[in-house]
Amino acid sequence: MKLHWLAAALFSMSVLAQAQTQKETADPPATASYSQKVLLKNWAFSVCLAKVAKTQDAKDAANAAASAYLEFGKLPIASYEPLRALADRYAKRVYGGATPGEFNTMKCIDLMHSEELEALASKLAR
Questions:
Q1: By three-state DSSP, how is residue 102 classified?
Q2: Closest CA to 89 of 110, 63, 68
Q3: Which residues contact 102 (CB under 8 A, 6 or more apart)?
Q4: Domains (ranges, CATH) in the chain?
């Protein structure tokens, strides 16, 4: 019985040490240094990526990024609704080209560089 307890304790210590090492070696995101305008634009981009994602893992990753940008933002939640509507509009666009595909990532990149997002983020960040 004591041997099982000792093995469990050693395993737990190993897991904790590994978690601490990962925490110490993880690169911190640059999010804290972004302006409110950049946080808003990055949030909208992440929301768009979540909308167009085909796998749950991709959707979860994009939503996690959006949550991080929201966490660092200083604006009320209601400020994000027009950004979400704009991201939805871009995600629903229908693109075509010589190469077959839905061009979902391109839709979100186009959103990120759009005058609409620039103007909206500038207005909200004031």
A1: coil
A2: 110
A3: 52, 95
A4: 33-125 (1.20.120.1620)
Contacts of 35 (CB under 8 A, 6+ apart): 125
Tell me 14's DSSP state: H
| pLDDT per residue as tens digits for the range 60-109 | 999 999 999 999 999 999 999 999 999 999 999 999 989 999 999 999 99
Tokens of 35: 């302006």
- List the one residue out of 27, 29, 6, 25 whose CA is nearest residue 17: 25
Interatomic CA distance for residues 4 and 6, integer angstroms: 5
d(CA 96, CA 37): 31
